[in-house]
Records
---
Amino acid sequence: DVQLTQSPSAMSASVGDRVTITCRASQGISDSLAWFQQKPGKVPKRLIYASSILQSGVPSRFSGSGSGTEFTLTISSLQPEDFATYYCLRHDTYPWTFGHGTTIEIK
Amino acid sequence: QVQLVESGGGVVQPGRSLRLSCAASGFTFSTYAMHWFRQAPGKGLEWLAALSYDGTRSYYADSVRGRFTISRDNSQNILYLQMSSLRPEDTAVYHCVRDPGRVNEEWLDPWGQGILVTVSS
């Protein structure tokens, strides 16, 4: 199975910071990667699909990029409501797998 | 609007079985593939199983293959997850999610609120 390595697992950041989260696949998955945001006690919310397409309603400070084996989620200017856990999901072939998550905490 | 409502959870002893249901509304259920995901307490997300729109093709995570069965009733707009030989590590909140068959705005959106399954003696 294709493995996903998400980094960092956690980070402290301040409002206004630029934040980047990385997912690396053990083999090429084209653009079959999505990003989810989850706040405590809430269901996951999909932010980005097909590596870089922003879900409607998601603020433009979020962006995704990458293809093949390396992908990034970038938040250009962190806002208070962005403190959450973020997951990547690869869906090129079954079984699908998630990254282990990145928790962004307030510095 | 699109609604996915899971039910059938609860506390079950190790080794026993449980069947989850997911009632779908607000979209043409019979034209969508469906998935089950779960999240153990304090842990990350895990994809479990997928079923084609017509119920003919199913896929499973290694962790549940041979123990869990995904199925659907398109006449009732319900997705099921039959879970057997349950283990304590199956304790989690289980979510059903729709899949239009192509990656677009509707793909894996929204998620049901989830249902808690606790496997404990």
---
Amino acid sequence: SQTIHQWPATLVQPVGSPLSLECTVEGTSNPNLYWYRQAAGRGLQLLFYSVGIGQISSEVPQNLSASRPQDRQFILSSKKLLLSDSGFYLCAWSAANSPLHFGNGTRLTVT
Amino acid sequence: KQEVTQIPAALSVPEGENLVLNCSFTDSAIYNLQWFRQDPGKGLTSLLLIQSSQREQTSGRLNASLDKSSGRSTLYIAASQPGDSATYLCAHLQGGSEKLVFGKGTKLTVNP
């Protein structure tokens, strides 16, 4: 069966520090991979998605970047965090026309 | 811009009631529509997926319907239980892309 792992579960970082969130999927090949952010009181905002290794689509210009170094690995990064980067970050995967499966999320607080 | 609207934003019902959550969307060329459940501080769990060629899907006490012509989907929960308390989100796959467009969700509270 397919599983998705996302870590860490919580993170507190100072403004200006770097960020690296990692997501891995097991049990499937060539999944579509997604990073979403959910801010308090707001809906899910798609940040990045990838349909293959090295293929990254950015939805919102911002302080973040994403990379897909391996087929089932998706990384969200920042060189210098801003206060506005605080939120709940969710990784997800899907196969063609199948349900989207989410990880458990990372609660990021930038202080 | 494709939009998904969920009404109401919050709903509180007594245990045992049947209830309907609503989702409306502006994109008539959707590929599929999905319903998710989110518990506080957790990720989203997929409940039901309706392909664009289907009218409804059922899983246990849940039934989701899709009416593309009117741009609406409903999630029907039968005999609600306190364990059903969560935020329910709908999302559709944009035509010609791999991106899901989400509504902001309906927060459901089922009181014992």
---
Amino acid sequence: DVKVTQSSRYLVKRTGEKVFLECVQDMDHENMFWYRQDPGLGLRLIYFSYDVKMKEKGDIPEGYSVSREKKERFSLILESASTNQTSMYLCASSLPMDTEAFFGQGTRLTVV
Amino acid sequence: GQQVMQIPQYQHVQEGEDFTTYCNSSTTLSNIQWYKQRPGGHPVFLIQLVKSGEVKKQKRLTFQFGEAKKNSSLHITATQTTDVGTYFCAGHTGKLIFGQGTTLQVKP
């Protein structure tokens, strides 16, 4: 069965902390995505990666960076967490060529 | 950048009524996908439409892709309480962009 696993379900961090959100997929997918979900705004794309060490900015990359050193793992980094980054973060993966995306269970991050 | 707009944001229906959500893109899409997110869950893929004017059905759900490949709709006939959730469209133009979603509430 297809699996995308996010390292934490809930996370509380302090303003200014460096935060790492980890995502691992076991399907040998080339594409991986990070979204944030906020009420009324849907899923907004932060970054995506179509291959190891390759990344592209999504619609809201400011304040975030990503790392993809291995095909199965895609990390989202908040360089200096701020309260406006409190949100639900969703990781997804897919095969190339516009195929369906599989989502992780999400990480609800609260920055205090 | 590319935008995918979805309306309405919320819809409350009586069980047995029909429901429709609409999706519009600012650019032509290579394909459109639909996802459902149950309360407390994560988005789950429902279907993908690729061809201009394409119509697909899954039981009570009917999906359409516009002739210009810039809009799409999802219609549910005779809603049931199990249809509750948020429905998202997502368009592909090299990256996967989601609409804001339509949250469906069904009153038994």
